[in-house]
Amino acid sequence: MRSMKLEIILSILVCTTLCLNVHPVYCQTDDTIPVTQQQRILLNSNILHLQRVIWIHTPSGYDQSNEIYPVLYILDGDIHFKFITELTEFLSGDEKNRIPKMLIVAILSDNRVSDFTPLPDSGLVSSGGGAHFLQFIRDELVTYISSHYRTAPYRILAAHSLGGLFALYAKESAPELFQSEILMSPAFYGPNKKILLDFHSFLTHVGNLSGGMFITVGDEPVAKGRIDTLADYLKQYAPSSLYWSYRSYPEDDHFSLPYTSMYDGLKFIYSGFYTNVWDDQHLPTRETITEHFLRLSSKFGFMMTPGEEFVNTCGYKHLRMKHYDQAIDLFEFNIKNHPKSWNAYDSMGEAYMNAGNTKLAIENYEKSIAINPNNINAKEILKKIKGPSK
Question: Do 38-269 and 291-386 have matching folds?
Fold first, then answer.
């Protein structure tokens, strides 16, 4: 491996969200504009001999948690970053919970033709830089992200058009780099059609191959024929451990396709992730949540744990229905997984207060304040519980 020196040259637009004492059942509407957590960096690449612009989005609550997060890498980042970050925040919200919260890493390209084409094409100026671009992602970018952020060992690559060609090339050349892919109308033409034509041989000889692959096409007759070939290869040669889907969107064209594709693609990759927190007859418990995440861990290949907000929501659902033992059990589960969370102790304090255990309510509210002295809510409640000081 070539020597590598990565240096952050510029870091701007860094915003940290304030972890509010949000209780989904009882909270009032917050009318402030949401604060985003986004960062722009420049990486000095020894492989590419230039600086690469990278945009990074950390999920809501990142700074207040100790959780690890899967990483979604996006090609043509300047085009797709804004809507994908909002989309992932929406789908991972504790009320929707269709996908886990995730880091977003958007790669910007000054010369996308060079970056995305593995083979030179006389019809495309400066084509053929795909091999070096892949080496940059694998040996420099992924290494940087893994060492500077709390990442889970699960990476997804989302790529549109010519980027979809590169994504298939990356799967063939470095199958362990990305565990899943979303290929939106991948463009196969010229000498680089070889990447498509070689894919059946790759599937036949790769051996163990897991993860998900989601492929889409819009109202594009020429492109569809080639993408149909890709789907045929998957039907004939893909191992059962690789789950995949190919969908056509006749109401979209090549340029409107990405939004719908990302929405459906992320839900496909994380099919089975959803837990219904709105069925009052079958509310999640600590036991059912633990079993659910053990199944997810087996599917995705690493230990997955429920997020703090999700468990908190489940606890408050039980608390609203006066299932005090179940609520306390879930809040205790959250404290075990997030011992430095002031909000977890605050929720436990409220549960004990509603259950009539004033002593333990005071104890947990005080622990919450010790972690976060700005927890005004807990201080006001303690005044009411303890009465006026003498």
Answer: no
In tens, the pLDDT along 30-62 reads 577 777 789 999 999 999 999 999 999 999 889
- Over the range 107-129, which residues count as b (16 or more CB within 10 Å of their CB) and which as e? bbbeebbbbbbbbebeebeebbb
Two structure tokens written together for 61: 């609550």
- CA dist 74 to 152, 161, 362, 387, Å? 17, 12, 47, 55
Q: Could you read off the pLDDT of 254-298 as tens digits, one per residue?
A: 999 999 999 999 999 999 999 998 888 899 999 999 999 999 999
- Ordered DSSP codes for 111-173: -HHHHH-SS--TTSTT---HHHHHHHIIIIIHHHHHHHS-EEEEEEEEEETHHHHHHHHHHHH
**Burial of 21 per CB tally in 10 Å (0-12, 13-18, 19+):** middle
Of 338, 348, 351, give the one whose Cα is nearest residue 61: 338
- Going by C-alpha positions, the residue among 364, 322, 356, 304 that lies closest to residue 339 is 364
Fold for 291-386, please state it: 1.25.40
pLDDT tier at 111, thresholds 50, 70, 90: very high
Among residues 30, 10, 102, the alpha carbon closest in space to that of 61 is found at 102
DSSP 37-49: -EEEEEEEETTTT
- Are 249 and 261 in contact by the 8 Å Cβ rule? The answer is yes
Q: How far is CA 327 from CA 287, 299, 310, in A?
A: 12, 28, 13
Q: Look up the CATH superfamily of 38-269.
A: Alpha/Beta hydrolase fold, catalytic domain (3.40.50.1820)
Number of helices and strands (H, E) in the chain?
A: 15, 8
Q: Which residues lie closer than 8 Å to 111 by C-beta, 6 or more apart?
A: 126, 129
- Domain layout of the chain by residue ranges: 38-269, 291-386
